[in-house]
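In response to reviewer comment 3 from the previous cycle, which asked for concrete evidence that the modeling workflow produces usable outputs, we include below a single protein chain processed end to end. The sequence was submitted unchanged, and the resulting structure tokens are shown without manual editing.
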Amino acid sequence: MFDLLKDVPGLISRNTLPIFNKAIEVAGSPGWNDIFWCVHPGGRAILDEVEKSLQLKKEKMLATSRGASRLRQHVGRCVLFVLFQMRKRSVEMNASTSGEGHEWGLVVAFGPGLTVEVSVLKAIPLRSA
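The workflow returned the following structure tokens.
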């Protein structure tokens, strides 16, 4: 277990915007609240800063928050558990897609050495019962 320096979350959130902008171009650059977010739940302070800097609605990180409380022992696989939580929540919401009703989304993981990995995903439609 390690602690982040107090300025690291702000540093990360300020420097990830160009990366997110470039990644989401493939989806036509929708607004940040018009996509789904699957974020590696590494540290609450980093998530809070990203949420604040992008002006995300609180529910955008709900799948990440749900996953974080149960994933302390699965650091390397966390993002897969967050995707599972998102799909589960999408079904509970009766959403049209596995991305909480959104067509596109970002999978984001923050790593050692202040690295960030970003993937763009396209959600699959959910069957209506």
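The chain has four helices and three strands. We consider this sufficient to address the reviewer's concern, and the full set will be provided in the supplementary archive.
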